[in-house]
Amino acid sequence: MISRRRKFIRVLEDWEVLYGPHRFSYKDLFIATQGFRDRQLLGKGGFGRVYRGILPFSNVQIAVKRISHDSSQGMREFVAEIATIGRLRHPNLVRLLGYCRRKNELFLVYDYMPNGSLDKFLYRVPNCMLDWKQRFKIIKDVASALFYLHQQWVQVIIHRDIKPANVLIDNEMNARLGDFGLARLCDHGNDPQTSHVAGTPGYIDPEIVQRGKSTTCTDIYAFGVFMLEVTCGRKPVDPRTSPEKVVLIDWVMNCWDRGAILETVDCRLGNDYVSHEAELVLKLGLLCSHPVAAARPNISSVVQFLDGAAQLPENVSSIIKSRDSSDGSSQGGVGKMNSLLEMFPLLH
User: Fold this and answer.
1) Which of the following is catalytic: 161, 179, 219, 266?
2) What is the mean pLDDT of the chain?
């Protein structure tokens, strides 16, 4: 028993040395959240609940994620988040302050984001509508976070669950990508593939369904849907709307085909948006959400497009609209796609 206890203690100490974040005492978290009372509840999901708290003695506001103790998937999420976000440092990522493990209860402690998640602004609080400048900045913030995860950190990190609910807004209206429970790591230069299909319906790369593999292209697809969602102010799939508008990607494509792509911009904005920026985001969103992974740009190209350091080719529509004619399973479809991609080397 003693040796097992010592072994457990050494594992925890290894986590702290390797992953960086501080280990909190359960007592401090219990006091901070007022005993995890319901009135401190910020939200809940498949793996547990998130509570608002104030650390005793320091008065620092925190968010505490309490992961379901009876969930083996919850345990995997706990280890995944400790192993990833605990070592990450970027202004557009939610910062993990530490963790706690008490018997079968698991806790992750984050910086508190006073403005909550992006989906609140898009759907749940009508009086807090985001203007175009804020939306465009949020899109660029998340792109910057993905650039760090895919290309700038010591390993490649595939987030696998990019959506407004996982983008938090700080007190200066900066966007921060969070919830790394589904994230996977690999070394640069290796094939960054995972064999477990993960994500949220509406944001899942169709190639995953066919091949069961997640790559950085998986994140690009979800980010493409995310860009369209933020710009259009509606969910990827909305069965309550008219038939031609049910699937967001299809609706934006159809509007572009008839020369009216800006009709898809959130009607609540009226005409108060920068048309060339909105058009860029909509077309880039369609390019990133192309059903063929090879047609999608990498995140460094996406950042260049959004920053204005590079321009989308005028005939990039040939690639985007090839979604209807390209068949990844046929030799002709692959050949046609490769020919189109050779025209636009900046995409990769």
Assistant:
1) 161
2) 83
